[in-house]
Amino acid sequence: MAEVISHPNTTLEEKEALEPENSGEGDGELPPSSQKEGEETKETSKKKKKKSKSKKKKEILQQSDPPSIPVLELFPSGDFPEGEIQQYKDDNLWRTTSEEKRELERLEKPIYNSVRRAAEVHRQVRKYIRSILKPGMLMTDLCETLENTVRKLISEDGLQAGIAFPTGCSLNWVAAHWTPNSGDKTVLQYDDVMKLDFGTHVDGYIVDCAFTVAFNPMFDPLLEASREATNTGIKEAGVDVRLCDIGAAIQEVMESYEVEINGKVYQVKSIRNLNGHSIGRYQIHAGKSVPIVKGGEQTKMEEGEFFAIETFGSTGKGYVREDLECSHYMKNFDVGHIPLRLPRAKQLLATINKNFSTLAFCRRYLDRLGETKYLMALKNLCDAGIVQPYPPLCDVKGSYVSQFEHTILLRPTCKEVISKGDDY
């Protein structure tokens, strides 16, 4: 009920007209109308109490700071927010109103809900991490804070829900696949360009999403180049779209940017040997590559597929090679039974199968599980072709690389940018 506020220039007569009439003068019994009002007041106060209780319940459903409440508790209905919806291009617009395609989506609802839960965790974790990022942070502390937050919010449950792959926090000319191994003392600096690439999954449905952090505004055009190139790739993607056409559109946008670093101007280049990719269940790279330069494959995207659309802009050669100490590993998805002679290798493989299956992992994760002196056994698994090492990918030393990435789903009726948030 709105409060009546007197205007400074209100006359005495107007004030009296605004005041409620005092019909209950004297000590006598209240007239029936006043009794009725009293009963209504009691009912109103009861309603207010009920409202305040429901408000308290709603307050409980707000995420804490730092985040610690699992998203399952924040969304008790079990339905999670869908990502940004984009319509397909003209030749596929008929899908929007097709009853057959809508029915297909109703059947896929449980899958959509799983991946949306993973995406909601990603959004909340990255929002928190952005709020605490600052120069001087130890990279190991950064990664462990991020990963522990994911574990809490996603209600980590073995292979049913958890981290999809190690936190990539590659710096400057390192484009991807770098995370600190135990004992690493690298510290985040004001002039660093850091790619923060982390993944979440529920029931093996993976959200792969990344952004770049730079404290020095000098790097803003470099970040904008990869962000806009990624948005272009998402816009161009769709059912029956050729992968090569997406790559050409991405390169055109990326290479329209320049960045001035310490007085020298660089044209931003797309890194030609890095790609986006299709995503399968428990399979981060599911076979199709989405190029970020022209001249790629003629293969088409298909209905129902998940894709990671990611772009890398560089001030270097625009070409990466493997370098530095390896931290990322992943069991090969299609590997059959391969006999192993070393008992230690067999035991390590059992740990990998139980905790990661075909999801990527890093040495810090093995340390956390209590594994020690495992490097020889891990090398044995790599040499046997059971596990694949993924060393850091680097452009030329002294250059800078930025990256942005989203996971999209080509639904039967529309395109859903699952990992989209208010930030990017």
UniProtKB/TrEMBL annotation:
What does UniProt give as the signal peptide span? none
What are the entry keywords? Aminopeptidase, Cytoplasm, Hydrolase, Metal-binding, Protease
Q: Kindly list the positions annotated as binding substrate.
A: 177, 285
What reaction is this protein's catalytic activity?
A: Release of N-terminal amino acids, preferentially methionine, from peptides and arylamides
Localization in the cell: Cytoplasm
Q: Which GO terms describe its biological process?
A: proteolysis
| Obligatory cofactor(s) | Mn(2+); Zn(2+); Co(2+); Fe(2+)
Which coarse location class applies to the principal site listed for this UniProt protein? cytoplasm
> Which stretches does UniProt call biased (Basic residues)?
45-58
Which residue ranges traverse the bilayer? none
Q: Where is this region: Disordered?
A: 1-82
Matching PROSITE patterns, A to Z? MAP_2
The residues the record assigns to binding a divalent metal cation 1 are 197, 208, 405
> Where does this protein hold a divalent metal cation 2?
208, 277, 310, 405
Tagged with keyword rRNA processing: no
Quote the record's cofactor note: Binds 2 divalent metal cations per subunit. Has a high-affinity and a low affinity metal-binding site. The true nature of the physiological cofactor is under debate. The enzyme is active with cobalt, zinc, manganese or divalent iron ions. Most likely, methionine aminopeptidases function as mononuclear Fe(2+)-metalloproteases under physiological conditions, and the catalytically relevant metal-binding site has been assigned to the histidine-containing high-affinity site.
Q: Where is the Peptidase M24 domain?
A: 115-313
Q: Name one GO molecular function term.
A: metalloaminopeptidase activity
Reported EC number(s) for this entry are 3.4.11.18
A Gene Ontology cellular component where this protein is annotated is: cytoplasm
Functionally, this protein is described as follows:
Protects eukaryotic initiation factor EIF2S1 from translation-inhibiting phosphorylation by inhibitory kinases such as EIF2AK2/PKR and EIF2AK1/HCR. Plays a critical role in the regulation of protein synthesis.
HAMAP family membership? MetAP_2_euk
UniProt lists the family membership as follows: Belongs to the peptidase M24A family. Methionine aminopeptidase eukaryotic type 2 subfamily.
Q: What is this protein called?
A: Methionine aminopeptidase 2
Organism, by scientific name, is Arachis duranensis (Wild peanut)
